[in-house]
Amino acid sequence: MLLQRVARTIGKYQMLRQGDVAGVAVSGGADSVCLAGVLRALAGQLGFRLHILHLNHGLRGAESDGDAAFVASLAEEWGLPWTIQRAELDTTHGNLEQEARRARQRFFAEATRTLGLSRVATGHTLSDQAETVLFRLVRGSGPGGLAGILPVTAEGLIRPLLEVERAEVRQWLGSQGLWWREDSSNLDLRFRRNVLRQRILPDLEEHVRAGSGRALARLASIAASEEDYWRESVEDAFRRSITGENPYIFNTIELRRLHPALIRRVLRLGLERTAGSLRRFTQEHVERLLRLVLQADGEGQAVLPGVTARRSFEWLRLAPPELERAADWAIGLPEPGRASAGPVTLEVVEDATVCPPPADGAECLYNVGRDWLDFDRLSFPLILRNLHAGDTYQPVGRDRPVKLKHLMQSERVPSWNRPDWPMIVSKGRIVWARRFGAAAWAAAGPGTRRVLRVGEVEGIRG
Q: Where on this chain does ATP bind (predicted)?
């Protein structure tokens, strides 16, 4: 009996507990009306309460308004509380299905917060699961994507009908004398899911193998179980291989110690956490990242949907595109003190503790560090700025000027750290650069009378 099967599904996945208040997403279509009816029949037995939710997308004019009125009437007839809202969708650009999905997610999250809901139930069926898995297969998803529609999500969505076929839904509605609304857009073959539903899956069932839908849903269940098994190992490998967060930076030497199957899952997790979801990615995107990890050459780039991956030396960075190139920045320092600009704060202070060279040749402070400048060789205001293309200077210890680009390559500075690299300039000449220290012409030496000490203030950004 369908009620018993749904009750088992609820128990198996711990979807609802006694005392919970479940929001029920009802569009007015057969699946959602069945969901509401089944949960209403089980509510007393399992000890939960219901609240009907409907979001009117307004995309079909009077038909959409009719759906909202139908849902309100159904909730009133059943004596259930209901909340109906109208969505304002941006239909001028982008994916309309995706925009509508985001609107529903916002609606469910707001309803959960304001109505005190424990979970929100949606009417996804086994048939929806089969369509999702088939679509992801042809789209190029990896093993993780084949898990399809999850019975319970981290956002609090539950799918009690996920082990019930669409045909069974309609049989149950007929046995209960319940009506539903038909959404005319479900027949629109401009939507890819409708092509799968109306043409591809029926052909598979009739001409390839009866039970294809159940086989695809079973594949999703197995994939979800295996992903759950992998989760702890992937998280542990992820943590061991990253050297920075926001954006994520991976040590490719650590990654290459892992089996390729685990590397793929670690990279997939990196994509998910960088982009916020995996909806826009396919397995081919993961494979492109894997090639960057495994290549011998330490440079390379892959531009993915909403994420730019860059390999530099032994590191791989995943970042949103907006982090790829920061704007140039600069600030004047009219006198010794603290200066903040871009991502850096420097202290340029006069230091009276530096002594002139003693007769016995013992070292003074300016011989110990590279960040000591001869005050009298400089002209204020000093300029704190980022690296510019072609910047060249001669650090202490070098016999000729050298491009900062070459210094950074020899010091294995990752390419994404270079644009914001801080330096100090006096009258157009570089006097100091991070890590490489003072310019030879501006460095404190035996004849120095007043010393400026340059130091980067840790933990403070400009």
A: 27-32
